[in-house]
Specification:
The complex is a heterodimer of chains A (566) and B (181).
Chain A: E1 2-4, H1 5-15, E2 20-23, H2 30-34, E3 42-45, H3 49-63, E4 67-71, H4 75-78, H5 81-89, E5 94-100, H6 116-120, E6 126-130, H7 136-148, E7 154-160, H8 161-165, E8 167-169, E9 187-188, H9 190-202, E10 206-210, H10 212-217, H11 220-230, E11 234-236, E12 251-254, H12 261-269, E13 272-276, H13 282-285, E14 296-301, E15 315-318, H14 321-328, H15 338-352, H16 367-377, E16 383-386, H17 390-398, E17 407-408, H18 419-429, E18 435-440, H19 441-446, H20 451-457, E19 462-467, H21 472-481, H22 496-502, E20 506-510, H23 516-525, E21 530-535, H24 562-565
Parallel strand pairs in A: 2-3, 2-4, 4-5, 5-7, 6-7, 10-11, 10-13, 11-12, 13-14, 14-15, 16-17, 16-18, 18-19, 19-21, 20-21
Antiparallel strand pairs in A: 1-8
Helix pairs in contact in A: 1-7, 3-5, 3-18, 12-15, 16-17, 16-23
Chain B: E1 2-10, H1 15-25, E2 30-37, E3 43-51, H2 60-65, E4 70-75, E5 81-92, H3 98-107, E6 111-116, E7 119-126, H4 128-138, E8 143-148, E9 152-155, H5 165-168, E10 171-172
Antiparallel strand pairs in B: 1-3, 1-4, 2-3, 5-7, 5-8, 5-9, 6-7
The chains are: A alpha/beta (566), B alpha+beta (181).
Organism (chain A): Flexilinea flocculi
Keywords (chain A): Amino-acid biosynthesis, Branched-chain amino acid biosynthesis, FAD, Flavoprotein, Magnesium, Metal-binding, Thiamine pyrophosphate, Transferase
Domain Thiamine pyrophosphate enzyme central (chain A): 194-328
Chain lengths: 566, 181
């Protein structure tokens, strides 16, 4: 059969199992779009290419499959950059396809020409420039393999317009990947595993740290068995939320800068850290030299470059977590740590009075109330996408996920504006799921234009805007560390309820605590996307907070009034 | 402290850029860089020398392995090795000092590769110490141009770059990389 490069591209994408592509057409992708009609793949027209890559990212995180974004050359491609780095930092499998000017024009500053492979070289797991139509099948196959295997990440394919247009005789063939330098399937030696077993048996105060790697590896069952068998408490990173059920007695909560006090105290006092698929980010460790000083450390990660990168460990096991735990579990003797667990229980008890939910109602609406009510109304089963900032930390603290792949947020890069498009992508991955986005008034406005995408696609998402009239997290830092000088953090927003109406959607404004539940229930009951504008306490802070580069048990705690202490 | 890295990489466009980016991102200044083909078709060999006291120099190898096109990397700084640098020096000459310079070149086992009325090009190959001392000897005559290839290095004995980094780190590597001899 005769195929154009563009037709070959779609055929290859179908063969990789792609069902949906998020994109925005342009001059250098015209042949690709022209060939879209004959494909079974659904194309979602975004309002900005950044939205396309965040959607592909959200799709990938909700489904565990590779998400695909499509953009034209030049500005289309450069608009992808923030989303590509977001995916790289959070190990999310995304393939970005960009059009490039025709190969004879490359290097002549042609209209909408950009050196896209050059720009994305340090921010992709790998990238390709295709100038020859014959390369399309093998490159697409390799790109999906690289994006989804090992430590997942974004891969970019830049295809020149002439390669898209050229017509060749072609038939799809099964391909094998030949990448002599790529080793995604490492595995630790039995000796190292034996050493790990020894350390685990010797531990009196162990704690498991779960990260995104648990989800990427699909090792939830193994981690659960390991935790229950060794009676080890489980702390989660921001991106590990959902990998261990939050209602389990061994579950502690989130660790790190805005982790719960007892979680950080547990880590600081433990004698064995079992780091499962996490990378000891600075948001987790605080000042490295003070981090978990008494603990032996075992680090299991699929990426060898993570071992001894941020924290020096006693044993690094490189490989797939599911496989490694599968080999470890039969060698592990059941253990009990009643004293350790009761010590943690008392730390937890001490902290309870500082939880805003438990404090006396002062008539103010706090974000914690909102998120707690969303959690209650959704039975903790919704897929929740948060944006970045205070809203993100409150969501992590108050939405307690029992199911994996239901907490999605931009962790490593902290990309404001990620929430709305990522939620759209997640909805495409799991259309049966109730999807909520919790965003701040600042971040929401960064990608607000994707509301039109929601309308055009006719999808249902519930949007909760935590509206405090400030860029809240920056304001909080100004309050704590810059003597309340709120420079450029007050932010005026449109009436979000009217924004919803302008899109033919429903908007609700909530100003009181007692209105929260009814609004959430109403949003759940309506068939269309609903925006709830929660006008919350303006100058609330996320507590506890570990100041930058301090030990993680030196936290700024929520002040308590005399009334609360009673 | 100078470190010498040797890497085997796929011979494809842009690979050198990727490798160098690993050093650039971490603000290492590359002192010398040499790239060329190997006895294996499709595989290039890179020798990179960096001067750094930074402890992160140990992290270079794992970061290099993150690159899909990098097949093998070694830090051979502490291994017995042979290093060579090829230098061509263009030096001013007069009819009076020409034979004197040629004699010096002989002492260093350097070769005269071009002779003109008032200049010579001399080629010398050797380890850096030898090359540097020859260059110092020529300096008083007036060096007008000089070019160096950068250091290439090879481990002594039967050991080769194909030794498995992962094995040395205690990781098992399930996939064997066999290269045709």
């Amino acid at each position: 059969m005769k195929y154009s490069g563009a037709q070959i591209l779609w055929e290859c994408l179908e063969r990789e199992g792609v069902e949906v592509v998020f994109g925005y057409p342009g001059g250098a992708t015209l042949p690709i779009y022209d060939a879209l009609d004959s494909s079974t793949i659904h194309h979602v027209l975004v309002r900005h290419e950044q939205g396309a890559v965040h959607m592909a990212d959200g799709y990938a995180r909700a489904s565990g499959r590779v998400g695909v974004a499509l953009a034209t050359s030049g500005p289309g491609a450069t608009n992808l950059i923030t989303g590509i780095v977001t995916a790289l930092m959070d190990s999310s499998p995304v393939v970005c396809i960009t059009g490039q000017v025709a190969s004879p024009l490359i290097g002549y500053d042609a209209f909408q020409e950009t050196d896209v492979t050059g720009i994305t070289l340090p921010i992709t797991k790998h990238n390709y420039l295709i100038t020859d139509v014959h390369e399309i099948p093998s490159v697409v196959h390799e790109a999906f393999y690289i994006a989804g295997s090992g430590r997942p990440g974004p891969v970019l394919i830049d295809i020149t317009k002439d390669a898209q247009q050229e017509i060749i005789e072609w038939e799809y063939e099964e391909m094998t990947v030949h990448l002599p330098g790529y080793r995604p399937d490492l595995s630790p030696s039995s000796n190292d595993l034996a050493y790990a077993v020894q350390m685990i048996h010797a531990a009196k105060q162990p704690v498991i740290l779960v990260g995104q790697g648990v989800l990427n590896s699909g090792a939830m069952a193994e981690v659960f068995e390991f935790a229950t068998q060794t009676q080890s408490p489980v702390a989660s990173t921001l991106l590990g939320l959902g990998s261990f059920p939050a209602d389990h007695p061994l579950y502690l909560g989130m660790m790190g800068m805005h982790g719960e006090a007892w979680v950080n105290q547990t880590i600081q006092n433990s004698d064995l850290l079992l780091a499962f698929g996490m990378r000891f980010s600075d948001r987790v460790t605080g000042k490295i030299s003070t981090f978990a000083p008494k603990a032996k450390k075992i680090h299991i990660d699929i990426d060898p470059s993570e071992i001894n990168k941020n924290v020096t460990v006693d044993l690094g096991l490189v490989g797939d977590l599911k496989e490694i735990l599968g080999r470890l579990l039969p060698q592990i003797e059941p253990a009990e740590h009643p004293e350790w667990l009761s010590q943690i229980g008392s730390w937890k008890q001490e902290a309870a009075i500082r939880d805003i939910k438990n404090m006396q109602d002062n008539g103010h609406l706090h974000a914690a109330h909102v998120i707690h009510d969303i959690w209650r109304c959704t039975n903790g089963e919704a897929l929740v996408v948060s944006d970045v900032g205070q809203n993100q930390m409150w969501t992590a603290q108050y939405y307690r996920h029992n199911q994996p792949y239901t907490a999605i947020t931009s962790g490593g890069l902290g990309t404001m504006g990620f929430g709305l498009p990522a939620a759209i992508g997640a909805k495409f991955a799991r259309p049966e799921k109730e999807v909520w986005i919790i965003a701040g008034d600042g971040g929401f406005q960064m990608t607000q234009s994707e509301l039109s995408t929601i309308v055009q696609e006719g999808i249902k998402i519930n949007i909760a805007i935590i509206n405090n009239g400030y860029l809240g997290m920056v304001r909080q830092w100004q309050e704590f560390f810059y003597e309340n000088r709120y420079t450029s953090t007050p932010i005026i927003s449109p009436d979000f309820a009217k924004i919803a109406e302008a899109h033919g959607l429903t908007g609700i404004r909530v100003t009181k605590r007692e209105e929260v539940e009814a609004a959430v229930r109403k949003a759940q009951s309506l068939p269309e996307t609903v925006i709830i504008d929660f006008r919350v306490e303006k100058e609330d802070c996320v507590y506890p907070m570990v100041p930058s580069n301090a030990a993680i048990d030196t936290m700024i705690r929520r002040p308590v009034s005399q009334a609360d202490l009673k | 402290m100078r470190h010498t890295f040797v890497a085997l990489v796929e011979d494809k466009p842009g690979v050198l850029n990727r490798v160098v980016s690993v050093f650039r991102r971490r603000t290492f200044n590359i002192e010398s860089l040499a790239v060329g083909q190997t006895n294996q078709p499709g595989i290039s060999r890179i020798t990179i020398v960096v001067d750094s006291d930074k402890t992160e120099v140990n992290r270079i190898i794992p970061y290099m392995y993150k690159l899909i096109n990098v097949i093998q990397v070694e830090d051979i700084t502490y291994k017995p090795r042979v290093t060579r640098d090829l230098v061509m020096v263009k030096v001013n000459t007069t009819s009076e000092n020409r034979s004197e310079i040629m004699k010096l070149a002989d002492v260093f086992r350097a070769h005269i590769v071009d002779v003109a009325n008032n200049s010579l090009i001399i080629e010398i190959t050797g380890d850096e110490e030898k090359v540097n001392s020859f260059v110092d000897v020529l300096r008083p005559y007036g060096i007008i141009e000089m070019v160096r290839t950068g250091i290439v290095a090879m481990e002594r004995g039967a050991e080769t770059i194909f030794n498995n980094y992962f094995e040395s780190q205690g990781f098992q590597m399930p996939v064997e990389f066999k290269f045709a001899s």
